[in-house]
Every structure is written in structure tokens, then in C-alpha cells.
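Customer escalation, tier 2.

The customer says the design service returned an amino acid string that "doesn't look like it belongs to this structure." They asked us to rerun it and document both sides in this ticket. The original C-alpha cells are below, unchanged.
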């Protein structure tokens, strides 16, 4: 099931042969540190906006912040490898991507675990995260600076409710639901009751418009930003994952900075994450009306049915066997 488990072994080999970047060369442009960030998100995604408007200016005295969007420089899911090898300085990464290297990160990818944006921040800043962060730093050469809020993921389908009304996971049987391409994402699609198909984010609009897939899942701000409402007809408010991303930076880059620069980068990342979080929350609260104006049906299914199925499937899965003892209870204790 964990087809990518071997990536941890591959990492050890990289470290052993000195392939992993312990220092970064070529990352200094002129007198300034070059901080190239790659994301599969668009330039208008609130995480990208926050990084450009808040992070970049805050470090401008000593660093050039150079973002690239839509997976153009590094395809979705390849950014961590690129940072690890010293070919990239920063990314907006996900727990799902980290779970490919470190299966225990799947605890942060499980449906109905994080409760809201504040819970994500509490979990990220809690000592329970220390060993997760240390593992990523030591074994991958990547430092997780701050947690960003992507939002509550909802099921977004081409079919109208007349064709397919979704109340419980059983209604999604046979629905070809695009999910991002890692094991953790695919399992979430299965747990929802659907037939998941892996696909990069950049291909989703076309796949929806041609009918190559029946639907996709993402938070409302992403549905709007990517204009998925043009090629779909309904949104089922499952809120199955309160989704997060991490602002990640190469450990070699981090170690090359002075203590003052490190403090500035950390503060800038925290400020960008907070700004993006507030904007994303505002958007999420207002977008149902916008989507309805665009002709979309937006409704809540039987949430208890989704929650029960998803939670029990995770607890019975191989993913749960990789979760360090007691961490799920600690996460739950940090919530409401
Ligand atoms: C997606 O591919 O559906 C996803 O929402 C997954 C997230 O982890 C994140 O990478 C996001 O895409 C991209 O940044 C595009 O918004």
C-alpha cells in the first residue's frame, strides 16, 4: 500500500553519497540571498498573494524572493526533492507530500482530524510537532517554517443534483473523483466512497471540462480561483479535510543565514501564513453566495455518515499503524 515507503530508504542513500545539499551553492544572487519558491498554486491563490505581499517585502533587505506558480518550474509533488537536492530554496508543501517520505505525516492528512484553522496552528506549534519537524530537517534537509490554511475541502461534481444527489458516501460509489497523486490523497478519496483518480492540479480544469473525471475536491476559494465552477454543477459540503500547507525552506539555506536573518525569515513566514489564513477564511465564508450566483447547487450531505465512514476507514488503515502512539489524542485535545 505504501508504494513510496522506499523514498525514505532513497533519502538515506542520498545522504550517504553526499547527494543531498548540506550547503547551497548558486543561491546567492548578487549580494542577496536568492529565495526561489515553487508552488502548484496560482499567483492569485491567497497563499501565493500572502507570500508575495508579506513574506517577500519583509526579507527584501537581504533576500530576493522569487516565486514561480502553477507547477511551472517544478511539477506538483517534486518540490521537496528539489529542495533536498539544493535545486530550489522554498515551497508551499503539504503533509501528503511529506507522507511520501515519512508515512507518519499521514496523521495530518486524515479526514476529519483537524477541526479548523486555529486547530491547525495549535497543532503546528505544539511540542507534538517537534519530532515530525526534526525528522524532516535531519532526513530530508527541509525546514518547516509555518502552517498555512488552505481551507475545508468539499466535493465538487460535474453532475447536477438531479443526476446525482449526494447524501452519504454510498452515493459516491463509482464516481471518478480526481484527487492529487499520492497514496494519502488517494486513500482519502476511497474513504469518501468514491473511485479516486490521481492527477496534477494543473490538469484538473481540462479533465472536468472534457468529462475525463466526474469531479474533484478542493476548498471553495480554490474552486473559485481555478474557475472550476465553469465546468461543474454542484458542491457537496463534506468538509472532509481542513487542509493545510507548510511553508518549507532548505535546511542548507537556513543554516547559511545569520541569526538575525533567520529570525526575519521566521517572522516573515509566520506573518504571511497569518495574512493568508485570514484572507482565505474571509473568502471561504463568502463564496457560497458567489457560487450559487454562478448556477452551482451547494448543499450539505449527511455529515455524520461521511465523518463516521472516513474516520473508521483511517483508524483501520495501514496509515494509522504509522502514527506515533498518543499523537492523535494530543491533536484531538488541542481542538474544541
Ligand atoms: C490539489 O492539488 O488539489 C491541491 O489543493 C493540493 C494542495 O496540497 C496544494 O498543493 C494545492 O493543490 C495547490 O497549491 C493548488 O492550489
Amino acid at each position: 500500500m505504501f508504494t513510496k515507503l522506499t523514498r525514505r530508504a532513497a533519502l538515506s542513500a542520498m545522504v550517504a553519497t553526499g547527494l543531498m545539499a548540506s550547503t547551497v551553492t548558486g543561491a546567492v544572487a548578487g549580494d542577496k540571498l536568492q529565495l526561489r519558491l515553487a508552488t502548484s498554486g496560482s499567483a492569485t491563490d491567497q497563499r501565493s498573494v500572502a507570500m508575495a505581499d508579506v513574506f517577500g517585502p519583509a526579507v527584501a533587505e537581504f533576500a530576493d524572493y522569487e516565486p514561480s506558480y502553477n507547477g511551472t518550474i517544478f511539477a506538483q509533488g517534486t518540490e521537496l526533492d528539489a529542495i533536498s537536492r539544493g535545486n530550489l530554496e522554498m515551497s508551499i508543501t503539504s503533509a501528503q507530500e511529506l507522507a511520501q517520505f515519512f508515512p507518519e505525516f499521514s496523521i495530518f492528512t486524515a479526514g476529519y482530524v483537524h477541526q479548523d484553522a486555529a486547530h491547525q496552528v495549535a497543532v503546528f506549534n505544539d511540542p507534538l510537532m517537534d519530532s515530525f519537524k526534526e525528522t524532516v530537517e535531519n532526513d530530508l534537509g527541509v525546514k518547516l517554517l509555518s502552517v498555512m490554511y488552505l481551507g475545508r475541502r468539499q466535493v465538487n461534481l460535474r453532475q447536477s443534483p438531479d443526476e446525482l444527489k449526494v447524501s452519504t458516501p454510498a452515493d459516491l460509489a463509482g464516481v471518478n473523483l480526481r484527487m492529487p497523486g499520492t497514496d494519502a490523497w488517494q486513500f482519502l478519496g476511497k474513504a469518501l466512497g468514491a473511485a479516486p483518480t490521481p492527477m496534477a492540479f494543473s490538469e484538473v480544469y481540462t479533465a472536468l471540462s472534457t468529462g475525463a473525471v466526474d469531479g474533484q475536491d478542493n476548498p471553495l476559494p480554490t474552486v473559485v480561483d481555478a474557475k472550476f465552477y465553469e465546468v461543474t454543477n454542484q458542491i457537496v459540503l463534506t468538509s472532509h479535510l481542513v487542509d493545510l500547507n507548510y511553508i518549507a525552506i532548505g535546511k542548507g539555506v537556513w543554516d547559511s543565514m545569520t541569526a538575525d536573518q533567520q529570525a526575519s525569515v521566521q517572522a516573515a513566514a509566520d506573518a504571511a501564513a497569518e495574512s493568508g489564513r485570514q484572507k482565505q477564511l474571509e473568502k471561504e465564508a463568502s463564496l457560497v453566495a458567489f457560487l450559487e450566483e454562478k448556477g452551482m447547487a451547494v448543499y450539505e450531505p449527511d455529515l455524520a455518515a461521511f465523518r463516521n465512514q472516513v474516520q473508521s476507514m483511517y483508524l483501520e488503515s495501514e496509515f494509522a499503524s504509522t502514527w506515533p502512539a498518543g499523537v492523535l489524542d494530543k491533536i484531538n485535545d488541542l481542538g474544541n
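Tier 2 assessment: The sequence is consistent with the input. Residues 259-293 form the longest helix (35 residues). The beta strands are 28-29, 32-38, 63-68, 90-93, 142-157, 176-179, 195-198, 215-218, 234-250, 297-299. Sent an explanation to the customer and offered a walkthrough call.
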